[in-house]
């Protein structure tokens, strides 16, 4: 089953910009039609679709609000039907807040968990059911964060959600492996996207002393790893979390020994 896996139909959530856009293009370059979803930037989604179509692939577009837990799964079903099936599903939708734990409101906590974990559960489950019913294997990839593995001051809700998503990936990988479906996480560090405030800027122009590679990442560098996990070449990789962070996570003790003031305590 693994050796014969030749994916041709993918869905990438939140593919209107950033990592999602880069991933949609990378999967199109690998020969896949790609379902595009957007939440607030329809124009961005249309621009992504145009890039996919320029590569000779189809790119149906749909609005997806992953916090609408009753409807989100139906969007995945509809896009998959338009594509004629589903081989690869990339859960990229997410959001975070930067608020000290003592100040996080229950509303903000619930919104973050609904976006990053509850919504992910709904759409991943729906995608998995489609793949199981088809019986031809599949690839499920969740974009998490380095904060799946290590926390950050001011990100308690985001950290909790991403830790949870990482655990979900591992559990689903255990359950779906015998069906030829691999399930993995990709955990980006600081990437030059809208979420980090430097979209459309060359990451090589930003110096980051605390990152071994000394710069942020490019969305296409994350997309390349996702595209690998979506391919036949990654047939024996499942339940993994591949960190794409320029070495950031390796700096824990080094950063702890080198920080010379208390500025980090402030979110």
Q: How do the helices and strands line up, and which of them pair or pack?
A:
Blueprint: E1 9-12, H1 18-29, E2 33-38, H2 42-54, E3 61-63, H3 72-83, E4 88-91, H4 106-134, E5 138-143, H5 156-176, E6 181-188, H6 219-229, E7 241-244, H7 252-258
Parallel strand pairs: 1-2, 1-4, 2-3, 4-5, 5-6, 6-7
Helix pairs in contact: 1-2, 1-6, 3-4, 4-5
Share of residues in strands: 5-15%
**Unreliable residue stretches:** none
CATH superfamily: NAD(P)-binding Rossmann-like Domain
Number of helix segments? 7
Can you offer a commentary on this structure?
- With 267 residues, the protein is an alpha/beta fold.
- The protein has one domain (9-265): 3-Layer(aba) Sandwich (Rossmann fold).
- The protein has 7 helices and 7 strands.
- The longest helix is centred in the middle third of the chain and has 29 residues, at 106-134.
- The chain starts with 8 loop residues before the first strand and ends in a 9-residue tail after the last helix.
